[in-house]
Sequence to fold (350 residues):
Amino acid sequence: MFESDAAVAALIKTILAQKKDRPDSNFIWLADEHPIQPAQMGILPRERLLFISNRFDQHELAVSKGILSRFSDFEIKSEDKPEELFIRVPKERPLTHFLLNQASKYLSVGGKLWLFGYKNEGIKTHIKRASALLDSTANVSKGKNQLSIACLKKNSDNTELLSDEDYLNLRQIEHPEIKPFWSKPGIYGWDKIDAGSDFLIDTLSTHEDSKEGLRILDIGCGYGYLSLWAAQKKPTLLTATDNCFGALEAASKNLEAAGAEVQASNAGDRIIGEYDLILSNPPFHQGFTTTPDLHQRFLKNTHRLLGNKGIAWFVVNQFLPLEKVACENHLIPEEIARGKGFKVLRLTPL
Fold:
């Protein structure tokens, strides 16, 4: 389980305190990938709180605790009518700007925006920009380890929004070595070819046979780079899965011609069936938190989904002990290549 995020804990504490004073007000929490513990989600109020996340695992957790939740790219609807809006500052600036713009658009004059984040995450700059956007003077309190908690009351409407790099919309990314692909901010490595995935493809080109008609699964597909390579093998079934709403949207667009199935899941947990070939370039962080728990999820589901004669190929940073986690999940790891700061492992069932 992920370690607790102190800023998320402060956000939840604030929701509870504000809800006690304003039980009939509409609250919205815009939550991205920062880890939330089940116990934390379990104490949230059920009435007049809407949880919106672009992460499928966060959405599923909220639903399991009886909280009204929406899995989307932070879509707020006019009928939601938020009176208080809560944001734990994300890692990416375009997303932070988009969320602040959402607050400006959908909060009524007099509504409140709450921001939570640390000095090294640029919280002071985000508070300054939100203050200008909402025509507000921020009331800022401090927590441990340079945590800032800001409350901003919207005093007027502002039509001049922050630049968010057109966050919501897919756009074609030109690349000299492959055909243009569709992507958008909010997807990891959205405007480039990930070096680890590129290293995995190079390795596969010399070690994987050209056999066609395989059932292939890409876990943590992002915008679908590995799946685009897999489609060239003319698989009988190609499935791509990710936890991020934007990634699923981009992968669906990129893999439309390949007839791939693109599904939301938490590291493959919603996928069923048996696959001959599994590909993955798994993340090792959630929000600003680094943890081995993600690899446990990926490898647990790889073992469950891999056929008796199936092969899984993973690429990870060289310093990560994926071999140990693979053995714990009844998979035999074999290092096939190492370079560029990465290693490629070939995994087969015990």
